[in-house]
Automatic annotation (TrEMBL):
One of its GO terms (cellular component) is plasma membrane. It holds the Pfam family T2SSG. Residues 114-136 are annotated as: Disordered. It comes from Pseudoalteromonas ulvae. This is Type II secretion system core protein G.
């Protein structure tokens, strides 16, 4: 005959598994906000870097043609005389949130142009990750 101890199966109880799941959930709730804030910060840095590349291309266009482009697509293709482009090596990218960059000529505050991204919400204004990124 088998004794009662040999019939018992080894393993974790439901209570032990629930405790482990709760502990993992608490750890994730502490780590996830820091991870996602770093991700948002890197998206803003990518947008700023892309806008700096636009700025260089826009300034080179102005040096060649004596005026600023009226739209960003002119950095890739134009019928203007003295156009010596393309001034960007690839098609004009969207911002890191999938929205087109906003380009205005003339810009605000007596600037020759304004280049901006509306941030993660894609709307003008906002704060933190939703704040606009502006190059003038």
């Amino acid at each position: 005959m088998k004794n009662k101890q040999s019939c018992r199966q080894s393993g974790f109880t439901m209570m032990e598994l629930l405790i482990v799941i709760v502990i993992l959930g608490l750890l994730m709730s502490l780590v996830a906000p820091k991870f996602f804030s770093k991700l948002s910060s890197s998206e803003r840095k990518i947008a700023a870097a892309q806008m700096a590349a636009f700025e260089t291309a826009i300034d080179t266009y102005r040096l060649d043609l004596g005026k600023y482009p009226t739209e960003l697509s002119q950095l890739r293709k134009s019928d203007e005389p003295r156009w010596d482009g393309p001034y960007l090596p690839k098609d004009i990218p969207l911002d890191p949130w999938g929205n087109p960059y906003i380009y205005k000529v003339p810009g605000t505050d007596n600037n020759p142009y304004e280049l901006k991204s509306y941030g993660s919400d894609g709307k003008e204004g906002g704060a933190d990750n939703n704040a606009d990124i502006i190059h003038q």
